[in-house]
Structure formats: C-alpha cells, structure tokens
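Here comes an entry:

___
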Amino acid sequence: MSIGARVFIICLGIFIFGFVFELVRRKSFREDLSILWFVVAFFIVIGAFADFLINPLAKLLGIGYPPIMILVLLFVLLILALLYFSVVISDLKSRLKELTQKTAFLEHELRSLRKVNAAQPQPPLQGD
C-alpha cells in the first residue's frame, strides 16, 4: 500500500473520531453508541497497516488471496453491528410500550377525576 493511501486512511479515521467526539460534546449523539463509532474509527486507523496484519493471518488460516480476509472480517463486524442494533431497537420498543401504557393509565385517571370534579357542586368564589 502506498504512503499516500496510508495517510488518507489515517486521516479518515481521525476525522471520524473527531466528528463523533463533537457530536457527543454537543449532546447530539448518545455516549453508549459513540463507543462503537470510536472503535470503528480506531479500526480504520489500524486499517492503514492492514497489509502487515492481514497477510500473515490469511496465510495462517490457509486463505490464498489475503484481501478476502478483509471482506470476511467486515462481514463478521456487520453481523455483530446488526445484532447490537437489534438489541437496542428491541429495548426501545419495550420502553415505548411501557410508556404508552402509563400514559393511557394517567389519561384514564384524569378523565375519572374530571368526572368526579364535574359531579360535585362548585363552591362560590370569595371575591364575588
């Protein structure tokens, strides 16, 4: 890999790291999700030296064409990311259901209190 390509990949990783850091600082991005993106930025920077890491690993695993090793690793990371986000979505759906039920219960209580309040005669105001 050429030095220019390595510098570009390192700059891309640093940019992603800085961008995510700024989003967290502005509170536009949740901290727990930002950790995942910091890890992605780190692996992008490591990717600048991937040929030194991937070639021996591919040879060790018996893979004849080392760039395929990168695709396999990306596929595994994609599956793990999908699994993580599925868990997050499931948790959010559970929270939404719970909040919807609480809101419905509070609305029911409010209607009941309004009916009771409307049925009782109102005392005259003292200032009249």
In short: The helical segments are 3-25, 31-47, 50-61, 67-119. The chain has a mean pLDDT of 87. The radius of gyration is 28 Å. The longest helix spans residues 67-119.
